[in-house]
Every structure is written in structure tokens, then in C-alpha cells.
Design brief:
Elements: H1 2-45, H2 47-50, H3 65-72, H4 76-84, H5 86-89, H6 95-110, H7 120-127, H8 134-141, H9 146-156
Helix pairs in contact: 1-6, 6-7
Bound molecules: heme C.
């Protein structure tokens, strides 16, 4: 009797493991699907300005996100700015689609896997707080690093070179 119930237990455990494995496979497939959708949304809605590799075109005012996003991610105001910026907040994407896009883009840009994920609720909250003056707000968050330096150069010389 004892050995029979042990066998039953082992069989149940095996069945449990199988179910767990199946569930894991399903999760992986849907996670991959979400990542693909996020990448497609980036290519469709963002890369026209930001370029597929996110290098942008700084000379035309499109920031190189590979440089600015790690800085912006470092503060709560910067994290909100990533969503409040018009390119993100005024896009045709839903809050959930933006959350998915950011949760793919942030690790891809920073090479970090510990970036706190954006929830749909968080995206919606930032999106409902539009910015009056985008460049002033951005310069304040980035500590005035990029923009004032450009201004100084522009004042010092009438054109490039
Ligand atoms: C029409 C061009 C354009 C499109 C399309 C666009 N952006 Fe932007 N994006 C900009 C510009 C310009 C800035 C710099 C801040 C500003 O002036 O709005 C920026 C800034 C950003 C920033 C903050 C980085 C920084 O250094 O300021 C993020 C994050 C961002 N965009 C994400 C996106 C995402 C995600 C999409 C697609 C859903 C998108 N953008 C679509 C032009 C665009």
C-alpha cells in the first residue's frame, strides 16, 4: 500500500511537472510574440524619426536615444518624460502597446535587464500629464547638459565650422 501511494504521488508529481513545462512554453511563446509586436510598433511608429537603431538625427533635433535614455531612466521625472514626450504620448498606440514597446526598447537600448517594467496604468498616468514646454522640461531633467552646450556653440559661431 505504502509503495503504491508513493508511485501515485510520483506520477502526480510528473504530471505536475509536465503541466508546468507546458505553461512555461506557452508563456515564452506569448512573450516572444509581445516582443515582436513591440519591435514592429517601434519600426512603424517611431523609427521614421528615431531610426531603426535609435541613433536619431541630433543635428535635426532628434536625440540619440542610446545616449539620452539611460540618463532619463535614472530619475522619476526622466522616466515619466519618456512617456510624456509627444512622440510617445501623442502616438496612435494604446497605453498597453506603449508599455509593451517601452518594455522591449528600454532593455534593448541600455543592455540592462533590471529596468523596472512600465505598466499600462503607469503609461496612462504619465500620458494624461502633458508637458507645456517639452525642451525646457527635457533640459531641466538632463541637467541642462545637451541643449545649453548647443546654444553656446550656436552663439559662438554663426554656423557649423
Ligand atoms: C516626428 C518625429 C518623431 C516621432 C515619430 C517620434 N519621436 Fe520620439 N522624439 C522626437 C523628438 C524631436 C524628441 C526630442 C524631444 C522633443 O522635442 O520632443 C523625441 C524624444 C523621444 C524620447 C526621449 C529621448 C530624449 O532624449 O528626449 C523618447 C523616449 C521617444 N522620443 C520615444 C518615441 C517613441 C516610443 C516613438 C514612437 C511611438 C517616438 N518617439 C516617435 C521625435 C519623434
Amino acid at each position: 500500500m505504502a509503495s503504491r501511494s508513493a508511485r501515485t504521488l510520483r506520477a502526480a508529481a510528473r504530471r505536475g511537472l509536465c503541466l508546468l513545462a507546458l505553461a512555461t512554453l506557452a508563456t515564452t511563446a506569448s512573450a516572444q510574440n509581445e516582443l515582436r509586436q513591440a519591435r514592429d510598433n517601434y519600426l512603424l511608429h517611431c523609427s521614421g524619426c528615431h531610426q531603426p537603431d535609435a541613433r536619431g538625427k541630433p543635428s535635426a533635433g532628434i536625440p540619440d536615444m542610446r545616449e539620452t535614455v539611460p540618463l532619463l531612466l535614472a530619475t522619476p521625472a526622466g522616466r515619466a518624460f519618456l512617456i510624456q514626450v509627444p512622440g510617445t504620448s501623442a502616438s496612435a498606440l494604446s497605453d498597453a502597446q506603449i508599455a509593451g514597446l517601452m518594455n522591449w526598447l528600454m532593455p534593448a537600448l541600455t543592455g540592462r535587464d533590471d529596468v523596472q517594467a512600465f505598466s499600462t496604468e503607469e503609461v496612462g498616468r504619465y500620458r494624461r500629464q502633458p508637458l507645456d514646454d517639452v525642451s525646457a522640461h527635457r533640459a531641466a531633467i538632463l541637467g541642462g547638459g545637451a541643449t545649453p552646450a548647443q546654444d553656446k556653440t550656436a552663439r559662438a559661431s554663426p554656423g557649423p565650422m
